[in-house]
């Protein structure tokens, strides 16, 4: 059973980037407004995520890192309402199984400024609990020696650590690019890397109050925003329920729900794009998804752009704002691939809104 657990764990946390993503998502789920990510030796030695969120309630200590333990669902019904937020209770248990274990320091509002330090073993069991340590409200999760229980994977991580670290930074850039819309608040994000000789390198610092354009400039400089325009469009998608009804009953009526997409995109003129698709960030309700990987939506955007702008990829930051009750998104097991129904409507809206004088509709 132990082995099985380790294999399935590998699907939630597949690399350094997903480890970081899961930890930061937990901090966001806890309502944090400030998050600090500390890498030691690019994450090889440890990854630490410090937040000012709700903290973990004492009644949750025992179970916190057991498989399928989650405090985020009260009924099965809720599953259909959730988009990219954590809800499977797999991240912490995976991280335990795939490392030398976790250390968690946490305090809720009622315990602060005193908190508790929890030591969790590789099986997700609470090994020790030390009360009365200084801790403001929030949680610090430290993962030590990622992938050490899997020597081959560990070797691979060591060999490619610079690249893996860059991938982790990419997802952190995505969090730094929220706010994408009025609906989402930004987060104060600080990222540092302490390398072997003790030197600490500041990687990223955002204060969470800038406009999207200003955040992008802070990351990449003013020139990066040349030829970039605001993205703001809406399109209709069928709701999950109506898709099912259409398939089951052949019912012609298909109620739709409106999805708004906001962000930034390269102007649809020749030469305005980039030679690589490295600056393409997609969000659902302010949560990044599928960073750095080709998703259906990402392919669609590139396709529209490519129709008249040979060999170029747009700079694009796009937040899909959806009502979660009309959940039109299916989440894959790794929570990183999202399928949009009526994706053609999005492509059409993009053409009509941004390329209508250039492409033949
Ligand atoms: P999930 O996010 O799917 O619920 P996780 O394994 O990621 O599962 O986390 C398990 C539980 O641990 C969460 O449901 C939450 O109660 C708690 N938790 C994890 N990280 C934090 C955090 N930074 N702040 C508060 N609670 C947390
Ligand atoms: Mg989670």
**Radius of gyration using CA atoms only:** 21 Å
Largest sheet: 8 strands, mixed
Secondary structure: helix percent = 25-40%
Helix run count: 9
Strand order of the largest sheet: 5-4-3-6-2-1-7-8
Tally of distinct domains: 2
Query: How many beta-strand runs?
Result: 15
Q: What low-confidence regions span 5 or more consecutive residues with pLDDT below 50? A: 1-10, 74-85, 325-337
CATH class wording of the largest domain: Alpha Beta
| N- to C-terminal distance | 56 Å
Task: State the shape.
Answer: globular
What would you say the CATH architecture of the largest domain is?
2-Layer Sandwich
Bound molecules: adenosine-5'-diphosphate, magnesium ion
User: Order of SSEs, N→C?
Assistant: HHEEHEEEEHHEEHEHEEEHEEEH
Task: Tell me the CATH superfamily of the largest domain.
Answer: Histidine kinase-like ATPase, C-terminal domain
Given helix and strand content, the structural type is alpha+beta
Overall mean confidence score, pLDDT: 80
- Tell me the fraction of residues in β-strands, as a range: 25-35%
What is the third-level CATH name, the topology of the largest domain? Heat Shock Protein 90
What do you see in this structure?
By secondary structure, the protein is of the alpha+beta class. It folds into 2 domains: 2-209, Histidine kinase-like ATPase, C-terminal domain (Heat Shock Protein 90); 222-354, Ribosomal Protein S5, domain 2, CATH 3.30.230. 27% of the residues lie in helices and 27% in strands. The protein contains 9 helices and 15 strands. The protein has helices spanning 2-12, 16-29, 91-97, 151-159, 161-176, 212-220, 240-249, 296-306, 343-354, and strands at 34-40, 46-51, 102-107, 114-120, 126-134, 138-144, 188-194, 200-206, 228-238, 256-266, 280-284, 287-288, 316-321, 329-331, 338-340. The protein has an 8-stranded mixed β-sheet. A 5-stranded mixed β-sheet has the order 9-10-13-11-12. β3 and β4 (114-120) form a beta hairpin. It is globular. The relative contact order is 0.13. The structure holds adenosine-5'-diphosphate (ADP) and magnesium ion. Magnesium ion is lined by residues 22, 25-26, 86, 91.
């Amino acid at each position: 059973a132990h082995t099985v657990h380790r294999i399935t764990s590998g699907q939630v946390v597949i690399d350094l980037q997903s480890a970081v993503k899961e930890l930061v998502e937990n901090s966001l789920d806890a309502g944090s407004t400030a998050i600090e990510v500390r890498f030691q030796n690019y994450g090889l030695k440890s990854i630490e995520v410090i937040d000012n969120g709700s903290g973990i309630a004492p009644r949750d200590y025992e179970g916190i890192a057991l498989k399928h333990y989650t405090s985020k669902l009260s009924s099965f019904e809720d599953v259909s309402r959730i988009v990219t937020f954590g809800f499977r209770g797999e991240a912490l248990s995976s991280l335990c199984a795939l490392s030398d274990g976790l250390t968690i320091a946490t305090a809720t509002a009622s315990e602060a400024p005193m908190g508790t330090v929890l030591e969790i073993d590789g099986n997700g069991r609470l090994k020790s609990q030390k009360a009365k340590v200084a801790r403001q409200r929030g949680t610090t999760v430290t993962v030590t020696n990622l992938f050490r229980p899997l020597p081959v994977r560990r070797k691979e991580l060591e060999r490619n650590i610079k690249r893996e670290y860059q991938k982790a930074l990419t997802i952190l850039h995505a969090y730094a690019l929220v706010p994408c819309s009025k609906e989402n608040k930004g987060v104060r994000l600080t990222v540092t890397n302490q390398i072997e000789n003790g030197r600490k390198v500041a990687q990223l610092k955002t204060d969470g109050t800038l406009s999207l354009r200003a955040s992008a400039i802070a990351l990449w400089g003013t020139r990066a925003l040349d030829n970039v325009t605001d993205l703001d469009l809406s399109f209709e998608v069928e709701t999950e329920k109506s898709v099912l009804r259409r398939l089951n009953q052949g019912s012609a009526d298909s109620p739709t729900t409106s999805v708004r997409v906001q962000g930034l995109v390269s102007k649809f003129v020749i030469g305005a794009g980039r030679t690589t698709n490295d600056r393409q960030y997609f969000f659902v309700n302010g949560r990044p998804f599928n960073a750095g990987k080709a998703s259906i939506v990402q392919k669609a955007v590139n396709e529209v752009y490519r129709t008249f702008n040979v060999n170029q990829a747009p700079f694009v930051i796009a937040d899909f704002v959806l009502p979660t009750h009309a959940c039109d998104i299916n989440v894959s097991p790794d929570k990183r691939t999202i399928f949009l129904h009526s994706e053609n409507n999005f492509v059409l809206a993009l053409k009509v809104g941004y390329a209508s004088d250039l492409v033949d509709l």
